[in-house]
Amino acid sequence: MTHPDQTPYQEADACLALMRAQVDAGLQHLNRACSSEGRLSAEQLDAHQEVSYELAFCIAELEASIVMLRYAQQVSTQDEMCEPMALSFCAENIRAVWQRLLTHATELALSNRHLLDLMGSEPLAGFLARFGDISQIAAIGAALLARGNARLPSGLDGEKDMVRDSFARFAEDVVMPLAEEIHRFDQDIPDEIISAAADMGCFGSCIPERFGGLMPDERSDSLGMLVVTEELSRGSLGAAGSLITRTEISARALLLGGTEEQKSTWLPRMAAGEKLVGISITEPDFGSDVASLSLKATKVNGGWQLNGAKTWCTFAGRADVLVVIARSNPDRNSPEGKGHKGLSMFLVEKPRFMGHEFNYENPTGGKLVGKSIPTIGYRGMHSFDLSFEELFVPDAALVGGDEGQGKGFYNTMAGLSGGRIQTAARASGVMQAAIERAVRYANDRKVFGAPVGDYQLTQVKLGRMLSALTAGRQFSYAVARMMDEGGGKMEASLVKLYSCRAAEWVTREAMQIHGGMGYAEESDVSRYFVDARVLSIFEGAEETLALKVIARDLIANAREENLG
User: Fold this and answer.
1) Catalytic residue (one of 54, 509, 539, 542)
2) Per the count of CB atoms within 10 A, which of 50, 170, 275, 497 is most buried?
3) Rounded to two decimals, what is the model's pTM?
């Protein structure tokens, strides 16, 4: 039973721990079912993909709930909305996790009867009765409408809030007036956005000060990068929010694996926005499966020749340099050539090209051809199919020099971890914009004689939307702190999984609140909706993260002592 001296936060912690124990029990069963001679079997794991996928979301929702509780404890004295929001968010996630477990109980070797009894007994029953009522969620939405402001305390220091304010103004004054036209006519991002962003230092938010960036030399500080990303994405995901993604990925890769000369040559120019970057990893036959990439890098006199195809290379036309992952050891039968061991990373310089296609004849040999892929959203950046035809790059282009051969996979993973929390921040920015528009419309638009916001269903939608945004934002901040301390790689995948799915739902609900106007292409919320759809696909597709990163790691590390 609930202890009378427990605070609501302690009750919530106890309930979340109970649900986590059930998830852990399921993970332990899968560990046994998918193991052969003490090792996980890839074939057996693939036979349990659906339940593994659902368990990944269970963990993401439970972790997001824990982060929300800690956030509310920190800022509840600053904003009275935060505590009830965190507690109702936990209650809803407890029900969602329980439902997933009940659906897959047989496959997880869990007892249906035990799960049913668990939900009807203390502490779960009492907690859900007190904090899981729909009227409480509606009250959060009503309070949001009354204040007309979707901004809650950030929980960050004053310096970060000043950075946020500066980039919020930049988004409103520079990006938003251009965003609709860029999207509707699939234009290039204008120089006025790129140059103004560079002047504000946004490209240096993930680069140490000694290389001309804004990040302290003595420690990593990813929070500033997240704050900048959120506000740029609030202005427009395609026209601004993704400008620093490629710099974030390439900077982390260079800091890990680059030579000192490469760092001192490239990082200052990236920080200043002098050199724009594109990331060329994905191939037509290998989406998120980095270890299977096949674009060939053949050693020749003075450098390397690149041959093969890449796809979904965002910003490739405009970029001055492409970070390319290629197979420098083509002998897949040798230990050095198998899987990720045969991959290397190259910095490929090229001229800037405007528009939707380009054909670059390299004066030192070979050519690079690019053609943009028409997309329903995320316009402005343009994603390209690329064809490398005996394209020559000098020895200096190999990241890490001779010592960098075969280390491309590790450099890529270091970059993508940063890219994943940055993508979570992009999701937060899009959600923020969508909620702001939805609140404004719900207060102004009348239906059946009353404002749309007066109806309970609208209030419930907005309460849940604000909760999802706040959880995603605070989760990304928590993971950024972990990564700055040297950990958090798996958590970066978790927060991307959670936030990107949340952004799809939040933008869908914002569009729905607008009714027919939301479906009009001239409406901002229609752009948010189609832009948000890409978030679960790039920087690691949702399915790949859930199955090959999160669930695999959880199942592999399931331990009996975790069970409750």
Assistant:
1) 539
2) 497
3) 0.92
Query: Which parts of 444-534 are beta strand (E)?
Result: 446-447, 450-451
**Contacts for 483 with CB less than 8 Å, ≥ 6 apart:** 220, 222, 417, 418, 421, 489, 491, 492
- From the number of C-beta atoms within 10 Å of its C-beta (0-12, 13-18, 19+), residue 77 rates as exposed
Task: List, in sequence order, every beta strand (DSSP E) within 416-512.
Answer: 446-447, 450-451
| DSSP count for the chain of H helices, then E strands | 20, 12
Determine the Cα–Cα distance for residues 513 and 432; give it in Å rounded to an integer: 15
For 405, the token pair is 């051969």
Burial 188-199 (b: 16+ CB within 10 A, else e): bbeeebbebbbe
Closest residue by Cα to residue 410 from 501, 291, 297: 291
User: In this structure, what DSSP letter does residue 187 have?
Assistant: P
Closest listed residue to residue 250, CA positions, set 338, 315, 160, 329: 315
- Do 515 and 396 touch, CB atoms closer than 8 A? no
Q: How confident is the model at residue 55 (pLDDT cuts 50, 70, 90)?
A: very high
User: From CA 140, how far away is CA 456, in angstroms rounded?
Assistant: 11
Q: What crossing angle do the helices spanning 408-444 and 489-513 adopt, rounded to 10°? A: 30
Sign of the Cα pseudo-torsion (461, 465, 471, 474, in order): negative
The one-letter amino acid at 489: K
Residues 18, 562: Cα–Cα separation, whole Å: 11
pLDDT of 479 higher than 80: yes
Query: DSSP H helical segments within 104-151, as ranges?
Result: 112-119, 124-131, 134-147
> What are 287-317's pLDDT values in tens digits?
555 667 788 999 999 999 999 999 999 999 9
> Is 80 a catalytic site residue?
no
3-state helix, strand, coil in the chain (%, to 5): 60, 15, 30
Residue 211 tokens read as 């290389």
What lies within 8 Å, CB to CB, of 191 at 6+ separation is none
Please tell me the distance from the alpha carbon of residue 68 to that of residue 473, in angstroms, as a whole number: 10
Q: How far is CA 325 from CA 303, 337, 422, in A?
A: 15, 14, 21
Dihedral angle computed from the Cα positions of residues 386, 388, 394 and 399, in that order, rounded to the nearest 10 degrees:
50
Phi, psi of 376 (to 5 degrees): -75, -25
| Amino acid symbol at 98 | W
CA atoms within a 13 Å half-sphere pointing along the CA-CB vector of 184: 12
Instruction: Name 152's Cβ contacts closer than 8 Å, sequence gap at least 6.
Output: 75, 79, 81, 82, 466, 470
Residue 561 pLDDT exceeds 50: no
**If DSSP states are collapsed to H, E and C, what string results for 378-430?**
CCCCCEEEEEEEEEEEEHHHECCHHHHCCCHHHHHHHHHHHHHHHHHHHHHHH
